[in-house]
Amino acid sequence: MEAPTNLVAQRRFKLAELKRRGFDPYPHRFDFTHSITDLRASFDRLTGPELETRPERVRVCGRVMSLRPQGKAGFLDLSDGEQRIQVYMRRDKVDDASYDLFQLLDLGDILGAEGVLFRTRTNELTVLASRLQHLSKNLIPLPEKWHGLTDVETRFRQRYVDLIVNPEVRAVFAKRSRIIREIRSFLDSRGYLEVETPVLQAIAGGALARPFITHHNALDLDLYLRIALELYLKRLIVGGFPRVYELSRIFRNEGISTQHNPEFTMLEFYQAYSDFRDLMDLTEEMITQIVEVVTGSRTVTYQDQVLDFNRWQRYSLRDAIVRFWPESVPAPAGDDLKSPERLRALARSVNAKFELTDGPGKLLAAIFEEVAEPHLIQPTFIYDFPTEVSPLSKTKPDDPETVERFELYIAGMEVANAYSELNDPAEQRARFEDQLRQRGLGDDTAHAMDEDYIRALSYGMPPTAGEGIGIDRLTMVLTNSRSIREVILFPLLRPEADTLPQALGEVDADK
């Protein structure tokens, strides 16, 4: 059969040819002596003469990322995704089967190589191959200039290809993994217990957000994917675990943007016999340590902004509004930030979004989001939030309209949310009832009534502080990623058209 000219068809033809010549193109295993990364770490320091005096036979495997045939010899580069090693194949050093296999290789194939290490005349650490083994066939050519794609969604949709050809993308997710390890290490060392709580819940609680709804057939029961970890973790505080945390996926049936994905990763942790001020200090210590360990510095560049984690800022919500009020608009004075009429006028003056049914607390929060949030570039704590937008927080002793709560902003993004937890069951019931009234007015993000949670509080929950940190946004900051989709391996995308059969070509590999 004559070799086809279509690139995909050529690869299907080579797959058939491998089978015809007796090769197994998809074997079950390959016994390697070193990963390529381990190989470089162990032998990069050895010179050519040292390798000659103590020959080292190795078996390595990886993806073929370059092919350079030279008559009856040739070079190829194998990659394990992190490091590469050069392999040299020479006709008089390999068996006939390995030589035939070399002629049928394509970029992207997965290959095993056995041989002795040496250094070339250009001092490149290289495996002088004595045997090659095919491990998997690449049927779709890798892109030559992945960065040149104009459709950025293709990178997210085909993340597997993105990871193969873009080492910097792999580095983002390796750094993300390290961030999570450092968080666990920090909390574990301070006596926190990592726990797991339900993903499927009868009541979507712990936050003000729209849930995803599903159905359990056996129980004939509608359930929700959790929108927060909070209420079950606080049940554990009631049960006698004084410090708990969970790192897990959260699901919210809301919009998609550069900072929002319908499923995302949240850290929530709770500390008994503490208040929000304790967690503010703890958070500053934890994130500063993570930044230094993960990046090697306390200053980080994010989208042309230098973030200095030696200089944390703290403002009350009202102080932040006044501090960042636009010069082109008359500034609020006196009790303007308390009067509902004045708050509506101020919200209109700065184009803040609000509903006519919103109370002063929601109006104040809307004004803050419009006026102050974009200016919170350096790590900044904003504290003293309105009670109206904080149904699970403890109020300040001298101001029932304000709660003991803070949010952490970095690079203009909310990264963390924390508060002194409300532990009075009667007040919690009243807050839930107010949320139900707001739901009746059309707010479908308002909190539902949770009778079991009120029952748990009735057994007695000690003074407690709790916090949630968005892992994706923190990773964005520490990897200089503009979009949340760049730090989620498989972000949610619309389904694509069924083009895979056409992409794979028409050649039957078995013929």
The CATH architecture term of the largest domain is 2-Layer Sandwich
Please state the CA-atom Rg, rounded to the nearest Å: 29 Å
Q: Predict the CATH topology of the largest domain.
A: BirA Bifunctional Protein, domain 2
Shape: elongated
Tell me the helix content: 25-40%
Structural class by secondary-structure content: alpha+beta
Give a count of the beta strands, DSSP E runs of length 2 or more. Answer: 19
Explain what the structure shows.
The protein is elongated, with a radius of gyration of 29 Å. Helix 6 packs across helix 7 (167-188) and helix 11 packs parallel to helix 12 (360-371). Strand 2 (73-79) and strand 3 form a beta hairpin. The protein has 511 residues and is α+β, with helices and mostly antiparallel strands. It folds into two domains: 7-142, OB fold (Dihydrolipoamide Acetyltransferase, E2P), CATH 2.40.50; 165-324 and 372-486, BirA Bifunctional Protein, domain 2, CATH 3.30.930. The strands form four sheets. Strands 6, 10, 11, 14, 15, 16, 17, 18 and 19 form a nine-stranded mixed beta sheet that branches. The protein has a five-stranded mixed barrel with strand order 1-2-3-5-4. Residues 146-150 and 506-511 have low confidence and may be disordered. The chain is built from 16 helices and 19 strands. The longest helix is centred in the middle third of the chain and has 22 residues, at 167-188.
